[in-house]
Amino acid sequence: MLELRKSVTAELRRRQPDTWFAGEYGLEFRHEPIYEPRWDINAPGVAEATLEEMVAKLLARHESMTRDTFVGLAGDVVGDRATVTTSSTDALAEISAPGVTKATGLARVAAEHGVGPEDVVVFGDMPNDIAAFRWVRDGGGRAVAMAHAHPDLLDVATNVTGTNEEDGVAAFLAAL
């Protein structure tokens, strides 16, 4: 993964020099000095690091491009060498190992508990939820998008509930 990170970061920086990088591993968040986290940088697990220290998920962010343009650029750079998605309204690309998605994690946890997709209700609002929605939907479960969800997620949802401000998840669960 280190060689992939190096080639991806080099190519993204070549195409868009003002790209910032960070990484996630478990409950830890590491970022380059230039990367400005959008939350408390003094929180446990948040620290500056070099790209060589970042593992699990590489985050690339650009401050002046639109989200969809930047995520598309990251997808072009990465190709089939990794999985690219986004969970932000900002120009933030999340880059994971090939095939690693919320669906693979959800399927693994469900299997460990003897639960199939037909017995799962999943909620989401961003493109990083699409794979999980498809796994649940295609298996007969419920994939519930928030009313304010990204259009691509709304396209794969089985249901839509209210926004976060309207307590959409609570309203949906209460109706069950």
Automatic annotation (TrEMBL):
Record has Oxidoreductase as a keyword: no
Coiled-coil segments on the chain, per record: none
Keyword Cytoplasm in record: no
Highest taxon above the source species: Bacteria
Keywords: Hydrolase
A Pfam family reported for this protein in Swiss-Prot or TrEMBL: Hydrolase_3
Name listed for the protein in its UniProt record: HAD hydrolase family protein
